[in-house]
Specification:
97 residues; alpha+beta; Glutaredoxin; two-stranded antiparallel ribbon; 4 helices; 4 strands
Length: 97
């Protein structure tokens, strides 16, 4: 994720993690992120977003959201290489330009 952020450092681009586990496991999630070197802001799931994510059966599930909060119709499931992630981000940027 750090490499992906660097790749798009010249654009308005942010990465967020959506914490979907039991709230009691936040410390374990923090430790995992630190061990993996992930520097992303985590968002906790609220009841208002739960219906939107209940259809997701895979982790990680990647969403792209524009600057007004609209979901860009590019999504991906499962682990991706840096090159695959760059392609997805470029596709998302093309859709909003």
């Amino acid at each position: 994720m750090a490499s992906l952020k660097e790749e798009f450092s010249d654009k308005s681009f942010s990465i967020y993690g959506l914490f979907a586990d039991d709230i009691r496991n936040i410390e374990q999630a923090q430790e995992f992120k630190e061990d993996a070197g992930l520097e992303v802001t985590d968002l906790l799931i609220s009841e208002s977003i739960l219906p939107a994510i209940q259809r997701i059966g895979f982790v990680p599930y990647i969403y792209f959201v524009d600057n007004v909060g609209e979901v860009i119709p590019v999504d991906a499931v499962g682990a991706k290489t840096l090159e695959e992630l760059v392609e997805l981000v470029n596709e998302a940027f093309e859709l909003i330009e």
